[in-house]
Each structure stands twice: as structure tokens, then as C-alpha cells.
TrEMBL record:
Gene Ontology biological-process annotations: allantoin catabolic process; purine nucleobase metabolic process
Stated name of the protein: Ureidoglycolate hydrolase
Keywords: Lyase, Purine metabolism
Lineage of origin: Bacteria, Bacillati, Cyanobacteriota, Cyanophyceae, Coleofasciculales
Superkingdom per UniProt: Bacteria
Catalysis performed (reactions): (S)-ureidoglycolate = urea + glyoxylate
Gene Ontology molecular function, alphabetical: ureidoglycolate hydrolase activity; ureidoglycolate lyase activity
Quaternary structure and interacting proteins, as annotated: Homodimer.
Organism: Moorena bouillonii PNG
Pfam families on file: Ureidogly_lyase (PF04115)
Length: 201
């Protein structure tokens, strides 16, 4: 008989500079936000000459939307889409949550997100590191007026809208050097994120 999946209640906090420390930079102006680029590794003694060993960044828009109880991302020009999470209702509290078990990290650059039309959203993040655990994650709530430019290697999923369909402005590295973490497969764990505004800052 299969072992039941474990659920980890991810702390929900307000998106601000203090709560995003070590994860990324909070911003309001998408046009001016910077995305960190990582230099291409050079194992030899001969110097890199092409653009100094850095890629470029690209701008895009993509949508994240609810289809039934599943939240999906799509219309990416430069990245993968697919299921970001699944909504559940806690029978004891009658509260709405989303379950997430697939995360990714970009090794060539950071990534910036902000809702195009100011909708509330949640950013699920954990610091860089190969041995990421459920306890490393935090959910940062934005009222829609703030976005975040995450550092290279930060674990994340697509932004999570509280409802409906949301279009996000996006900047990320052109190389798209990405690794995945499948928490359900690797640690028999799903992340449980409340779909609401945090009670405290």
C-alpha cells in the first residue's frame, strides 16, 4: 500500500524587502527592474571573450489561470508551462489551499515577475541549494502592486493567483539553464500554501 503524502504548511508572509531577504529584490517598476546574470563557468586558463561570458535577458508575458481545481501556466515564449498546483479545501477550517510539489531553479540568471494588471498573487520561494527541503520554503503575498526579481538558483514555481486568470510580466535569462525539484517523488512531500492575504506582516 502506498504511503500517504506528507503535507508541509508553508509560512505565508507579506512580500517586502525584509521577508524577501536572500531570495530576491522587491520592485514596483518593471521597466527598470534588473535581472542578475551569471557568468558562464570557465574551467580552463583561457579567458572567455564572447560578451564576457554572460548571456542576455529576455522579456515575456505569460498567464497563470485556474481550470477547475488546478492552477496552470501557459503562453510562455521562452519557458515551460503546465500545472503549477492543485487547490484543496481544509475540512477543519474550510480554508482554501494550493498543493505544490514541482519547483524549478534557473542557474544562468534570476527572474522577475509582476502582475500586469495589479492582481494579488503569491510567490513560493526557497533559497538556492541542491538539498532543498520543504521547510526552506516561504510564500510571499503581494497585493499586486509589487513584484520580485529572484536571485539565480532560487527555487520557485509560477506565481500563484488567488483566483481567475492573471497575466504576468516576466524577465529571465536567455539560456534558461533550469533544474527541477520534485518534492513528491524525492521527499514524499507536498507544499501546502494558503490562498489568502497573510494575517500579519
Amino acid at each position: 500500500m502506498a504511503t500517504p503524502c506528507k503535507y508541509y504548511d508553508v509560512p505565508l508572509k507579506k512580500l517586502n524587502s525584509k521577508n524577501a531577504e536572500g531570495l530576491g529584490n522587491v520592485f514596483t517598476d518593471f521597466e527598470d527592474v534588473e535581472v542578475e546574470l551569471c557568468k558562464w563557468p570557465n574551467p580552463g586558463k583561457r579567458p572567455l571573450i564572447s560578451r564576457g561570458g554572460y548571456g542576455t535577458f529576455i522579456e515575456d508575458e505569460f498567464k497563470v489561470y485556474w481550470r477547475g481545481s488546478t492552477v496552470l501556466s501557459g503562453d510562455h515564449k521562452s519557458a515551460r508551462g503546465g500545472a503549477a498546483g492543485k487547490a484543496v479545501v481544509d475540512p477543519e477550517t474550510n480554508s482554501n489551499y494550493v498543493l505544490v510539489h514541482w519547483l524549478s531553479a534557473h542557474l544562468d540568471a534570476g527572474e522577475a515577475f509582476i502582475p500586469k494588471n495589479g492582481e494579488p498573487s503569491i510567490f513560493l520561494l526557497a533559497p538556492p541549494g541542491d538539498n532543498v527541503k520543504a521547510e526552506d520554503f516561504v510564500a510571499l503575498y503581494s497585493d499586486g502592486s509589487y513584484g520580485i526579481s529572484i536571485h539565480p538558483g532560487v527555487w520557485h514555481t509560477a506565481p500563484l493567483p488567488l483566483s481567475g486568470e492573471v497575466v504576468y510580466k516576466n524577465k529571465q535569462g536567455s539560456i534558461y539553464a533550469t533544474v527541477d525539484c520534485l518534492l513528491l517523488k524525492e521527499q514524499d512531500t507536498c507544499l501546502k500554501i494558503p490562498l489568502r492575504k497573510p494575517e500579519e506582516d
